[in-house]
Amino acid sequence: MNQIWNADNYSSSFSFVHKYGEDVLNLIVGENVRKVLDLGCGTGALTNALAERGYEVTGLDASENMLKKARESFPSLSFRQADASDFRIDSPADAVFSNAVLHWIDRTRQPLMMKCVYDSLRLGGQFVFEMGGSGCGKMIHEGLAETFKKHGREYVMPFFFPTIGEYADLLEDVGFTVRYALLFDRPTKLKGADGLHDWISMFVSTPFLGIGEDEKECIIHETTEELRDQLCAGGQWYADYVRLRMRAVKE
Question: Which superfamily is assigned to 7-137+159-190+241-250 in CATH?
Answer without folding.
Answer: Vaccinia Virus protein VP39 (3.40.50.150)
